[in-house]
Design goal:
Belongs to the flagella basal body rod proteins family. Keywords: Bacterial flagellum, Cell projection, Cilium, Flagellum. Pfam families: Flg_bb_rod, Flg_bbr_C, LlgE_F_G_D1. With 270 residues, the chain is of the alpha+beta class. Helix content is 23%, strand content 33%. The chain contains two helices and 19 strands. Strand 7 and strand 8 form a beta hairpin.
Length: 270
């Protein structure tokens, strides 16, 4: 009886966590470069059920799951739609050929490389840039865009040009080339908020895709990559999550009523 409590309660907790992921996706449906999370539900380790067939022997009847949990949320790095803005400070990173990871068979992911205020390296797909007071290219939240020399790229004004390979031209001169980070295993990328990712829990530095003959990409100036969240699909999943939560809630109520009957009726002397 108590096992039913834990099974229903674990289902409710898992759906609550999934609801948080989906609502975050919906809230960022219009955020440039945002990547939706794919959740994975797993059952707890099965318990082996046996029937005693004698004093010292038993017969295996099979396994029984004791609950479910939300194991992880993995970003979906599929390409979002391109929106033409016409602004020179808007850049879209468009992967054209990215090798699949040998372990999981999933394609890798490409990112713009940025530097935070503390000097740490992070990665983003949000190409909504601006030029700071020192002429450095930066993201909307103030992180500096790094070139292949791992230094910020500087320009004299917003009137600059970016070639398809990421080379930045300012008044006809080369100011640098965008450093494109390559994650062979995209599942290693960890969301940090504000469209930023770090490579692994320790924040490793990704190898550069620049000059890698096996990787193809292009930079489109005057375009922004939109979020790859499908609002319709996310809302449908959210409603299914809510209904599953309600179903587990009803199961929990049924078990509670049964326990009340046990406590109040069983063993009662009339």
């Amino acid at each position: 009886m108590l096992r039913g409590y834990y099974t229903a309660a674990s289902g409710m907790l898992a759906q609550m966590q999934r609801q948080q992921v989906l609502t975050n996706d919906i809230a960022n449906a219009n955020t440039p470069g945002y990547k939706a999370d794919q959740t994975s539900l797993r059952s707890f380790k099965d318990v082996l059920i046996s029937r005693l067939s004698g004093v010292s022997s038993s017969q295996n009847l099979g396994g029984l799951s004791t609950g479910v949990y939300l194991q992880e949320g993995i970003p979906d790095f599929s390409m979002g739609t391109l929106n033409e803005t016409g602004k020179s400070t808007d850049l879209a990173l468009v992967p054209t050929e990215v090798p699949a990871d040998q372990k999981n068979g999933q394609p890798g992911a490409l990112f713009l490389t940025v530097q935070q205020a503390d000097g740490s390296t992070r990665y983003t797909r949000n190409g909504n840039l601006s030029v700071d007071a020192l002429g450095r290219l930066e993201t909307s939240d103030g992180n500096l865009i790094l070139g292949t020399n791992n230094r910020p790229i500087t320009v004299s004004s917003e009137d600059f040009q970016v070639a398809s390979d990421g080379t930045v031209y300012d008044n006809g001169r080369v100011s640098g080339q965008l450093n494109i980070g390559y994650a062979a295993n995209s599942a290693q990328m960890v969301k940090e908020g504000n469209g930023l990712y770090k490579a692994g829990e320790q924040g490793a530095v990704l190898p550069s895709a620049v000059g890698n003959q096996q990787i193809g990409y292009s930079i489109k100036q005057g375009f922004l990559e939109q979020s790859n969240v499908s609002p319709e699909e996310a809302m449908t999943d959210l409603m299914n999550t809510y209904r599953t939560f309600q179903a587990n809630q009803q199961v929990l109520k049924a078990y509670d009523q049964s326990m009340q009957l046990v406590a109040n009726k069983v063993g009662q002397v009339e």
